[in-house]
Amino acid sequence: MDIVTLGEILIDMLPAETGKRLTQVSAFIPKPGGAPANVAVAAARLGASTAFLGKVGRDFFGEFLREVLQREHVDTRGLRFDDAARTTLALIAQPTADNNEYIFYRNPGADQRLRPDELERDLLSTTRALHIGSISLTDEPARSATFEAVRLARQHNALVSFDVNYRPALWRSPADALAQISAMLPNADVVKLNESELELLTQTREVEKGCTALLARGPQWIVVTLGAQGSYFHSAQKRGYARGFQVDALDSTGCGDAFVGALLTQLVKFGMNELDAHLEAALEYANAAGALTATRRGAIPALPTEAEVKDFLRQVLPKIGVLGAET
Ligand code: ADP
């Protein structure tokens, strides 16, 4: 397996219209979502073999989510069904194009109840990369399951990727989030975060300063996503910006997941040791996948295929020139 992702899979209840707050939208439309599940689909559409580990309710939505993963060629051997808790729902509104409002219905949701003994250990001991986020760290037993999965993957030399994906509403307090996210950092090879998450973890929005502080806490690579501006990359050897692509953005849901899925397909393709040499191309590819996702509504439905990303790059790169990272 190229990439295993672990964490929440849920139903995104998308607003029937944008420009309205959560309490003002006229209706919600159910769509498959959950960041790690999105990443598994994103990477599968981009040509990687992927599997998802997590838990849904034994209900209509849980069955629907398994069907979606299977249709997208994501291995579901590690998807568990909970008899006692429902599939999690996330109600979403988009008051402005680059700002989402969320309410999560998970008190608890099935995703929080994944236990360490339910992990599909064969997948974790053979995968080349494991990707997780912080939402499976909010509560037990999913937190222990996440740490155990990371331990197993590392033991078998897989690359561990961690999306900070901080959602304040899901945590008891910012201090709790900070403690759990900080505990995961030393276990991750690649950490992806945005500027406000960088500020939460390092008390600065200055990317160079913040990334230097994060590198000292264990990870080898830090990637900061900057919305339409693209992304910033920082390792011991290399650092720099990869400019974003100009697109007609419609909905930013799923952009970060497309970006991570694309980056991971490049990481497993080149191998960890070769990454610095292929960094510019990998970030450009990930920025393109994120930009294309912004042009369509929803998360999973918006994720581009390998052919779409390659076509997009073929069309736009001659116009804007080659992107460069500073060494
Ligand atoms: P997140 O905050 O979830 O990490 P971002 O909104 O920063 O996600 O998006 C991830 C990546 O997707 C960005 O780094 C960028 O490459 C691309 N992207 C996102 N929004 C746009 C946009 N409006 N125009 C072009 N690219 C975008």
Write the layout of secondary structure elements.
Elements: E1 3-6, E2 10-15, E3 28-33, H1 35-45, E4 50-57, H2 60-71, E5 74-75, E6 79-82, E7 89-96, E8 99-105, H3 121-126, E9 129-133, H4 142-155, E10 159-163, H5 174-184, E11 190-194, H6 195-202, H7 207-215, E12 221-225, E13 230-235, E14 239-243, H8 255-270, H9 279-294, H10 306-320
Parallel strand pairs: 1-4, 1-9, 2-7, 4-5, 4-6, 9-10, 10-11, 11-12
Antiparallel strand pairs: 2-3, 7-8, 12-13, 13-14
The structure holds adenosine-5'-diphosphate.
The CATH superfamily turns out to be: Ribokinase
Please trace the helix and strand order, writing H or E for each element. EEEHEHEEEEHEHEHEHHEEEHHH
Q: Radius of gyration, Cα only, in angstroms?
A: 18 Å
| Helical residue percent band | 25-40%
Query: Structural class, from helix and strand content?
Result: alpha/beta
How does this model look, in words?
It is a single chain. The protein is of the alpha/beta class and 327 residues long. The chain has a single domain (3-8, 37-60, 73-80, 115-320), classed as Ribokinase (UDP-N-acetylmuramoyl-L-alanine:D-glutamate ligase). Helices cover 36% and strands 23% of the residues. It is built from 10 helices and 14 strands. Strands 1, 4, 5, 6, 9, 10, 11, 12, 13 and 14 form a 10-stranded mixed beta sheet that branches. It has a 4-stranded mixed beta sheet with strand order 3-2-7-8. The protein is globular. Residues 322-327 have low confidence and may be disordered. Bound molecules: adenosine-5'-diphosphate (ADP). Adenosine-5'-diphosphate (ADP) binds next to strand 13, helix 8 and helix 9.
